[in-house]
Design brief:
The complex is a heterodimer. Chain A is mostly helical. Chain A has a domain of 110 residues: Cytochrome Bc1 Complex, Chain D, domain 2, CATH 1.10.760. Helices cover 35% and strands 6% of the residues of chain A. Chain A has a two-stranded antiparallel ribbon. Chain A is extended and about 90 Å long. In chain B, strand 10 and strand 11 form a beta hairpin. Chain B folds into three domains: 115 residues, no CATH class; 186 residues, Alpha-Beta Complex (Sulfite Oxidase, Chain A, domain 2); 126 residues, Immunoglobulin-like. In chain B, the strands form six sheets. In chain B, strands 5-4-13-8-9 form a five-stranded mixed beta sheet. In chain B, strands 6, 7, 10, 11 and 12 form a five-stranded antiparallel beta sheet that branches. The longest helix of chain B is centred in the first third of the chain and has 27 residues. The two termini of chain B are 24 Å apart. By secondary structure, chain B is an alpha+beta fold. Classes of the chains: A mainly alpha, B alpha+beta. Chains A and B meet through strand 1, helix 4 and strand 4 of A and helix 1, strand 4, strand 5, strand 13 and strand 15 of B.
Amino acid sequence: MCTLRYLAALAVLLALTHSSAAQQGYPVRLDLGTAATPQDLTQFYSIPPDGRGLPPGKGTYAEGQKVYADTCAVCHGDKLQGIPTPGIGGDKLIGGRGTLATETPVKTIESYWPYATTIFDYVKRSMPVNAPGSLSDDQVYAVVAYILGEANILPKNAALDAKSLPAVAMPNRDGFVPDPRPEIELYR
Amino acid sequence: MSDPDLLADYDPKTRAQIEAMVEAERLALARRRSELEDCDCKTGMFPNPGRRGLLFAAGSALAAGMASFLTTARAAERKAPPGSVLRDVPDDPTKVPGTPIAEDGGYGLRSQFETEVRWRFPTATTISSWTMSPLDKSEGIITPSGLHFERHHGGIPTIDSNRHSLFVHGMVERPKKFTMADIKRFPSVSRLHFIECSGNGLTEWRKPTLKTVQGTHGLISTSEWTGVQFATIAREIGLKEGAAWVLAEGADSAVMTRSIPLEKLLTDAILAYGQNGEALRPEQGYPLRLILPGWEGNTHIKWLRRLEVSDKPFMTREETSKYTDLLANGKARQFTFTMETKSVITFPSGEMKLPGPGFYEVTGLAWSGRGRVARVEVSSDGGKSWNLAALQDPVLPICTTRFRFPWFWNGQPAVLQSRATDESGYLQPSLKQLVDIRGLAGPFGSIYHLNAIQSWAVASDGSVTNVHA
């Protein structure tokens, strides 16, 4: 009996050893996580230069003027000139065209930003700094139209929507070059 | 206030920022000096020997006893340095029982006599700012998690890891949501890597501006990071034909985004939840951050909540208006990801004072975003002659390497420099070489990616200052 029991136990042990050996190694996929539904993903956005993912809605320069005065001017100044004061620190938004190749470049949306879609994406995600994400899509379109109007990139009666925003030609669109490093000058 | 000549070449906005930074460093130094007055337990020569030097010169039992008395008497008035509590200091710790075990509540504290802290760059807003790591007192290659430099664009979010998820979607076969529990079930890796902000040294392009190595180089830190390789996650979700870029997004109030080439993610990226043996600190991205070894710190998205696979970059604010390098010709370099070979002597460094001629072990850190450090050379004559430094093991890829160099100071003025070469053969350049190539449209033009040789001048009285040599 004792021997039989011993043999049975041994057989089980061998079977276990064998099956665990067969399972060694890492699976290619673990099937972890749950499927992300389209509904899950509606909360997210990120707008590339072609405008993919821009929401419906629209806004005009005039509407944007009010949004700006109510929401943005406190940090960026009533003339979009920026307020570098401690405790505020809003960037200057317009001006600076023609300064990039000088000793004192002034980098603003007008002089430096290559894509209007970036303004929409950034304002919608991060502004205003005390209540990010609080502007409606219409308000974001409007305030972008206002800033671009003040920057003399769009006329002061322009309206923006998902179709017209990606078509805006920014002055510094061709101002960027790929990273050449390591710099070949260092190998002379 | 800073020397007006020093800042004369800068535009008003830049001047204001640099003046503020100089002032922040001055306050930090003043605080350290006042702590030294209270305590002669400091080792080393930082930043001012003051009373301690005097006592050492006296060298008598009486002087030592008096020092101990003063220290004890003042302990009650002192404020505990961050991360410590004040305890009574016995004259002889062998004659009284020590602190009961686990009185710290189960999470250890540092000594009340250690005062190093990060200090903040005084940006106008406190939620978009950065802090510098105190490299001058650094030991070895690991940065304590509580001293790791920081850069935030919307403050530090408070996130419950039980409610945090990572979404991976876009050009994938199986878009998914992963809880932190899911992520921790994947096979993991632990690797030591530095992270350096591409703005490290931004004040130093035109003139030697900040005084200490914390100010000039404090935006680099090294940790052991533990997490899941992106490649593991990629198989889980299935990459579609044409996938080439991935947007990484953080769950802070800036909802930080950067576009990352898929090639980099499939080379060595880690979705990290561990730092130096425990969970990430909140200011380092708790509960999940991206680690892109050797790439500029800004791309290591913290509080990671989303990865969107795409065929093109998204051209976010942080990769167009910021973190691009404006050159003298008005064009700006974009997607300048790699942190190139760099080194700095941390001892002796700015504001220290050597007590007299004799032997000193010069030591510092070297690193490269392209691989291992192959060698470090040290000069004590401003770069006229160079000598090999010893590299302290371990020498790891894309990690800080500690170097050491024996130096006999003859008491004459000297200029100490270090220069590193990495395993690709890239030799750390001089500042002049970089300025000749990139121009001086900065510091708020081309402010980023300053990896030039750093010079510390040692005067005949032993004082050490930041110079351009």
